[in-house]
């Protein structure tokens, strides 16, 4: 799912970079991009939490390692 969202973001960025869109369409695409970024961020945050859970030690301490 995140791969699809990233592809959509790339497509939206290309459309915006073309400079050929009317202002109203540019604003619409910008809003779609913001929503995709939020969704990707949430997915990445959830993945990070899962990694931390996996790394949790038996004594309850957590070993945090950079991803």
- H-E string: HH
Task: Estimate the mean pLDDT confidence.
Answer: 87
Biggest sheet details? none
Helicity, in percent?
over 70%
| Distance between the ends | 20 Å
* Overall morphology: rod-shaped
User: How many strands?
Assistant: 0
Helix/strand/pairing category:
mainly alpha
Supply the number of helical segments. Answer: 2
| Computed CA radius of gyration, to the nearest angstrom | 18 Å
List the uncertain runs: none
Strand content: under 5%
What is the count of structural domains? 1
Search tags:
67 residues; mainly alpha; 0% strand
Summarize the structure.
By secondary structure, the chain is mainly α. The chain has helices spanning 2-18, 23-54.
Describe this structure as you would to a colleague.
- The protein has 67 residues and is mostly helical.
- It has helices at 2-18, 23-54.
- Helix 1 runs antiparallel to helix 2.
- The radius of gyration is 18 Å and the shape is rod-shaped.
